[in-house]
TrEMBL record, chains A, B:
CDD domains: HTH_LacI, PBP1_LacI_sugar_binding-like. It holds the Pfam family Peripla_BP_3. The keyword Transcription regulation applies. This is LacI family transcriptional regulator. PANTHER family: HTH-TYPE TRANSCRIPTIONAL REGULATOR GALS (PTHR30146:SF109), LACI-RELATED TRANSCRIPTIONAL REPRESSOR (PTHR30146).
Length: 345, 345
DNA sequence: TTGAAAGCGCTAACAG
DNA sequence: CTGTTAGCGCTTTCAA
């Protein structure tokens, strides 16, 4: 059963016939374009409603726009990204644009596939969140469609960027811990080898920010960085490594909340109390950092604002593709919770 | 600068010219369609590679398919959904189809907007995960595009379904707790009023499954259901309510992991130890249930398999739109962790 | 202000 | 097996 014959879609021709005008007129009304009298607009609008007409985006795209914005998120599991997405959808809610997300990407190859798929579908603009692709690829993408890169530093004339100042975020954590009386503050970073990305990716900047802040607080001699990956397992292993040190740290700054989760697990396993024996801080202020059971001190990146700014820049660029590129940098804030306290309490 | 003039896209005509064949020939090669000699195929493929040609999905969609599958997830924050998504993308990886996600939807209106947007973009098929829309709307959608509904019971001739047997999941939890020696097992449900959805939505079925299982274990007199919402706050409030009861339960079955998180928070606040004083179980086996710090007993829905099945059914239906609808039901499994133990220990 | 007509890139139907 | 032709639904000249 199930209506084997899907009823033919209502097209612009049906609307034109119903309203007794030309398709051109209907098109003008759809796009709020110049050259249609108020009476005609009203008449056309009525027909559109009566017939339940909705324009076919693919067909529109062949000549004009598809009114579609693509968003690429690296990992849908990371609870930080929904914040950005909320900011994006909220800003786009009252426009005609529709957002679609690429599926979780990990690695340059997956990113290439998704970005190409977006371009092939005629999307009017794309927002890339924390992409790992080479700058060359990003610029190639930006050459064929308006693009905004979010959560990654590195200005380019080809695309706009919106990012959090990770140096500052790292400094907030180190400052907070130092103020509590910690000196031996260790850091677990996500290892980065690619030379281009080294300066642009948040993980690298957090590690640098940590080093810089330690020096600024006169704690240079206690700088201790463990290389791992931004995963729970990475945090677990990194914490193990720290525990094996002859002089144990009194605080650990994990480069991401998910890393902090692994750290907490390792400490619990080792019978250490947090923050009694050792303090732990994360980064991203993810949903589970806020869970009462965990209550992790973290850094909030204002994801919502990031998303909102990204949309603003993107719409501007869709309007004027040759305007000079813009870089927006937002300041993170510290969210102290129960995993950090005075040392040796 | 940023290349103010985006280079014209390579079209099928360019490829045809380069390979010295007709556009029809190129089209056939693209679609692996019948009627092209191996030599011609090779020649065309070479030209495609040399020119870096990629077909324009919108244009294809005007006559044939767009090779695009839309997936609607209700809430990107719920860590259960990525599992389904992984199953979907994994099954689609080696096909020409590309997945795009609708942005997080809450409520019927948002769902309507997203499903319509997908149809307007000529998507070849759509997968709706735990939609809250009325059955009528779902059938309207399914009438214009092949559709699979995931995570919601309720067979329809218009679409296929893939769901977990929530009765069974609830029974697993009750059985587990009963076997540990619990009798006073309470349940926190997500309140459902809509009569149509009542029988189809997972939350309602979990509550029913709980009641049924309690009876089956001879614990009918201890049935105790608190109505809340599937949120952390809902769990917190629900737990408060349970604590105010004259006879306290020794175990709580929360309808979802996120609810269990709120429950745990309330119990911690009340100075109760888990599972010493009271056991807690959730549902969905989300990422944070597995976190060492939380270690929540939960029910695993085999999201990956759900996604894989959804894709299989969808591709089948894209091939043959009039084949009778299919319902796939998967069995959940219990994942016992540290939040459940013997009562009164 | 209005509409006729061309064409976006591709596929399907058909003829050779 | 191969190519010609006619659209798909819309926007965009451009002439009236």
């Amino acid at each position: 059963m199930g209506l084997p014959v899907p009823p033919r879609r209502v097209t612009i021709i049906d609307v034109a016939r119903h309203a007794q005008v030309s398709t051109t007129a209907v098109s003008k009304v759809l796009r709020n374009a110049y050259g249609a009298s108020p009476e005609m607009r009203a008449k056309v609008r009525r027909s559109i409603d009566e017939l339940g007409y909705r324009p076919h985006a693919g067909a529109r795209g062949l000549r004009g726009q598809t009114y579609t914005i693509g968003v690429m998120l690296p990992d849908i599991r990371n609870p930080f990204f929904p914040e950005i997405l909320d900011g994006i959808t909220a800003s786009l809610e009252d426009t005609e644009y529709q957002v679609f997300l690429g599926p979780g990407c990990n690695g340059e190859q997956a990113e290439a596939r998704v970005t190409e798929a977006m371009i092939d579908r005629g999307m009017d603009g794309i927002i890339l969140v924390a992409p790992v692709s080479s700058r060359a690829h990003l610029e190639r993408v930006a050459a064929s469609v308006p693009t905004v890169v979010v959560g990654r530093q590195g200005a380019s004339p080809a695309y706009d960027t919106v990012a959090d100042e990770d140096y500052e975020g790292a400094a907030l954590v180190v400052g907070h811990l130092a103020r509590l009386g910690h000196r031996r503050i260790a850091h677990i970073e996500h290892h980065e080898t690619d030379p281009t990305r080294l300066a642009e990716m948040p993980n690298a900047r957090r590690a640098d920010g940590y080093r810089q802040a330690m020096r600024a607080h006169g704690l240079a001699e206690w700088i201790d960085v463990v290389s791992a990956t931004y995963t729970q397992e990475g945090g677990y292993q990194g914490a193990k490594e720290l525990l094996a040190r002859p002089r144990r740290s009194t605080a650990v700054f994990a480069g991401a909340d998910i890393v902090a989760m692994g750290v907490l697990e390792a400490f619990t396993e080792a019978g250490l109390s947090v923050p009694g024996d050792i303090s732990v801080a994360g980064y991203d202020n993810t949903t589970f950092a806020a869970l009462g059971q965990i209550s992790l001190t973290s850094v909030d990146q204002a994801g919502h604002e990031m998303g909102g700014n990204a949309v603003r820049l993107l719409l501007e660029r869709i309007t004027d593709r040759r305007r000079p590129s813009v870089q927006v940098t937002l300041s993170p804030t510290l969210v102290p919770r129960r995993t950090t306290g005075r040392p040796g309490e």
